[in-house]
Design a protein that fits this description.
Chain lengths: 302, 585
């Protein structure tokens, strides 16, 4: 949506300002009591400033996210007393930028901290402005849950385009907020399918359906790839072990926040309400992904 | 003539005359004012008052209400603080209506109307309500929770003269009971029925029959489970409707049903207000074109599936619209069309459609400027936008000096001016300076103390102010508290205002209904000081952590910042129904 290259430009300047420390820190120091050294607080890492926070703590915050402990306020006091410091909330709220771009995280944080400093930090404001992740702060934007549920069924790219597409496609998409027809793609198969999640009520049934949908397609792919040398006839392999990691393929999904998640963790009805699309990945590829930057997120959500 | 003489003259009027004069005073504010004139006016007024408005249910209690207004027939109560709408108030906070209903039932109050906002309404409350007041006529629940379709069934079954059942955006547990079928055959008095927020299916046959036997039905809002076929049949039965909320609005546009619907719509000459479209196929929209020309109110904000150009085509028909609620899928271009078409527009609300950054274009300052330029009667706006500029706000202020409500919400809470990167202080300053009748303001974007200086200086009529992620220091809050003489509700989140601002003018809070501060700089010590000095205030701290955590000296550390504080004036002291996580200091 926004110009990401501008964001990257903004970030080095941002780092400079933080590293300089002096002017910025001086002003803030008057206003607050610090328990932790300024440098430590400002040092860039994938966690809120202040030394004490761990992922475990932020996990509990995630679960209490609804209760709105969010604040983009000043640095925490050096205390383990409750209520928790505001930066704890930032940790939770910036899970997305953490996963995607650490530069985004630093721009978010700095933007929050420097909200009071107008002209001096135009570079930071630039990055703050170009930040594209909405809804990363609890209770913001201030709309009722009722509306959030409607908005999460929004039809992204289609909304501002001409709708002179096949009407059936239109009505299918629109129905997706009520009847969850979700796309499902499989590694190695160029053509996707659609499943109506309403017709299943357990993960097992879904897994079975995936097998039914793709078994044939996968076989065709394999056949054409191998040049038709191996004639497997009708003995096509079943696609199994989708849910427990034991098979060649694993089922993952993309939720309403755009994150990739392993299928099977949450109760079925919760899954249905947050799933936006499904993917059948090769299990080997999954472990490769796990070693990458997404590891933290996957670990946290298991 | 001095006041004393005037009073003596007035006292020669028999009470009946005074009462008759007071009958002309409908606003509760006017009636409150006349009660203050003298004892006899107070007395006459209280015996003749039938409608009471209580903006904070904890400011008084049921006993006092009943003692003062024994002839009470219509009660409006509001419970939770406004920020509860955005999940900032934990479940179980309070706002229960049961004690009120119980007290009124016991005292023989002849209750006919009950309107509740942000309250917890249990099925028991609804059952008690339904059985205790034989003349009960109107129930309006807005943003409430705690009840199920069982409670609704009780209302339907027992309220013989029910005229209005209006459920707006409530959290209702739909137990798939047959509440709608509970309206007896003898119920023919319905004027208004709104169940759009219910999630479950209703008995459509019962619905059609209910509509058929209620000739006075003017307002009907269906939920998304009611299919288009049923809507068509209902419209045939009730062409006199003036307010319609469609259920599902999706069907094959070439089908016979759809053609029948179009014809039925053409026959509905009275529809002035349209909403719903909870599930919509854009190709079905042309069915409503015939009624668009007479519409004064249109709410499409629950329909993300309508594309921008379909919206625009629709809007072109709506020349008399006064109130428009839409999603930002309309885009700046669409708002330009609104500006050119809707010259009677008074209230506009543009809601965000894309909360998860999937890539929708939202609206920007351009759309707002276009509206302000094209719609001379605009006086109320709620605008969720991607970005804003000072220049745009200044232009809007010049174009529309008549704003009563101005609520701007940037999707990024601290985004600066999109062009200059400056804070948006000047823009909002222009708004408050130009709009002398502004009573409600919400600010957002990058803001310093300066904006509050402007607000304090110029916003003389301001009654409600919402602040988030704004300001630099206590001065900001002080400007507001010192300047806005008519301030009633102040809600602040994530802003650096602390004890100095909180405690500088403690008497101010007795002139206000309530103050909410969350994630600010106020400490426990500051709140305690305030609570000590001001016995007529309840200062409540919401502490969401489990009991046992941080106990002992930790939880009593006065230097500790308070996460959420809600204070309000009250005549009845600390409330007795506060849950564990709410401390009243």
């Amino acid at each position: 949506m926004e110009d990401y290259s501008r964001e990257d430009e903004g970030c080095p300047q941002l780092l400079d300002l933080i590293a300089k420390g002096g002017e910025w820190v001086g002003i803030r120091a008057v206003e607050r009591s610090h328990g932790i050294s300024e440098e430590k607080k400002l040092e860039l890492r994938l966690a809120p400033p202040g030394g004490e926070w761990s992922f475990e703590e932020s996990n509990t915050t995630i679960s209490r996210e609804r209760n709105g402990l969010f604040s983009l306020g000043p640095c925490p006091q050096n205390t383990v007393l409750k209520p928790p410091s505001p930066w704890q909330h930032l940790q939770t709220s910036y899970l997305h930028p953490v996963r995607r771009e650490s530069s985004q995280l630093c721009s978010n944080r700095a933007a929050a901290e420097t909200k009071a400093f107008s002209a001096a930090n135009t570079a930071m404001h630039n990055t703050a402005q170009k930040r594209t992740a909405p809804a990363t702060v609890v209770g913001w934007p201030p709309i009722r849950s009722f509306r959030k549920n409607i908005a999460s069924g929004s039809f992204s790219k289609q909304a501002s385009d001409s709708p002179d597409v096949a009407p059936s496609k239109v009505s299918t998409v629109e129905k997706s907020s009520r009847t969850p027809f979700v796309k499902i793609n499989m590694d190695g198969v160029p053509i996707g399918r659609k499943v109506d999640l309403k017709s299943y009520n357990t993960y097992e049934k879904l897994s079975f359906a995936v097998d039914e949908l793709f078994r044939g397609l996968l076989a065709v792919q394999k056949k054409s790839c191998s040049g038709g040398i191996k004639d497997e006839g009708d003995g096509v392999e079943k696609i199994g072990g989708l849910l427990d990691g034991s098979g060649e393929y694993t089922l993952v999904y993309e939720d309403h926040e755009g994150d990739r998640m392993l299928v099977g963790d949450v109760p079925w009805h919760m899954f249905v309400s947050t799933v936006k699309r499904l993917r059948v990945l090769k299990t080997s590829e999954l472990s490769a992904l796990s070693r990458g930057p997404k590891q933290g997120k996957i670990a946290m959500n298991n | 003539m001095c006041l004393f003489q005037f009073q003596s003259v007035m006292n020669y009027f028999p009470e009946e005359v005074l009462e008759h004069v007071f009958d002309f005073l409908t606003s509760h504010r006017d009636r409150n004012t006349v009660s203050l004139v003298c004892k006899s006016w107070y007395s006459v007024e209280r015996f003749s008052r039938e409608k009471v408005f209580i903006g904070n249910c904890y400011a008084v209690n049921p006993e006092r209400l009943i003692a003062r207004f024994p002839r009470l027939r219509s009660l409006t109560l509001k419970g939770k603080p406004h920020f509860a709408d955005f999940n900032l108030v934990p479940d179980g906070w309070g706002g229960h209506v049961y004690p009120w209903i119980e007290a009124m039932a016991k005292s023989g109050i002849n209750l006919e109307e009950l309107k509740l906002k942000r309250m917890v309404v249990s099925d028991e409350s609804l059952e008690l309500l339904a059985k205790s007041f034989p003349n009960f006529k109107s129930l309006v629940l807005v943003s409430c929770e705690g009840f199920t379709t069982v409670g609704l069934a009780a209302i339907a079954s027992n309220c013989r003269f029910l005229r209005e059942l209006d459920l707006q955006e409530n959290e209702v547990d739909d137990l798939k009971g047959k509440w709608l079928s509970c309206f007896p055959e003898s119920c023919t008095s319905l004027v208004s029925l709104n169940f759009a927020c219910l999630k479950g299916e209703v008995n459509v046959v019962a619905l059609e029959r209910l509509v058929a036997r209620c000739p006075n039905l003017r307002s009907l809002r269906l939920n998304h489970t009611v299919p288009l076929e049923v809507l068509q049949k209902i419209l045939v039965r009730a062409p006199q409707l003036s307010d319609l909320g469609t259920g599902s609005f999706t069907h094959d546009p070439d089908s016979e049903t759809f053609i029948k619907l179009k014809n039925a719509m053409k026959n509905c000459h009275s529809i002035r207000s349209l909403s719903g479209f909870l599930d919509v196929n854009g190709r079905c929209l042309p069915a409503i074109y015939p009624i668009c020309i007479s519409l004064t109110s249109l709410n499409l904000s629950y329909a993300p599936g309508i594309f921008s150009n379909e919206l625009i085509k629709l809007i072109c028909h709506c020349k008399k619209i006064e109130r428009l609620w839409i999603l930002d899928t309309i885009g700046d271009k669409g708002l330009g069309v609104v500006a050119n078409t809707c010259k009677e527009l008074q209230e506009l609300r543009v809601f965000p459609s894309d909360l998860y950054g999937v890539g929708n274009t939202a609206v920007t300052e351009e759309g707002l400027v276009a509206i302000s330029a094209g719609c001379p009667k605009l006086n109320s706006i709620l605008y969720f936008c991607q970005q804003m500029t000072n220049a745009a706000l200044i232009t809007v202020a010049k174009n529309c000096p008549n704003f009563i409500r101005f609520r701007l919400c940037t999707l990024d809470p601290i985004v600066p001016d999109a062009v200059t990167n400056q804070p948006l202080d000047e823009g909002f300053g222009a708004i408050v300076q130009s709009c002398k009748r502004l009573t409600r303001l919400s600010v957002s974007g990058l803001l310093t103390d300066q904006v509050f200086l402007y607000i304090g200086m110029y916003a003389e009529q301001l009654e409600m102010l919402s602040i988030a992620f704004a300001g630099d220091s206590d001065k900001g809050m002080l400007y507001v508290l010192n300047g806005c003489k008519k301030l009633k509700k102040l809600e602040i989140r994530d802003s650096p205002f602390g004890n100095m601002a909180l405690l500088s003018d403690m008497g101010k809070y007795e002139t206000m209904r309530s103050l909410w501060m969350s994630s600010c700089e106020v400490t426990l010590g500051g709140c305690k000081t305030l609570a000590e000095k001001m016995p007529w205030l309840n200062v409540e701290i919401i502490n969401e952590h489990e009991a046992g955590e941080g106990e002992g000296e930790a939880s009593c550390d006065d230097r500790h910042r308070v996460e959420k504080m809600y204070l309000y004036r009250t005549l009845v002291g600390p409330r007795k129904d506060a849950p564990d996580f709410v401390w009243t200091l």
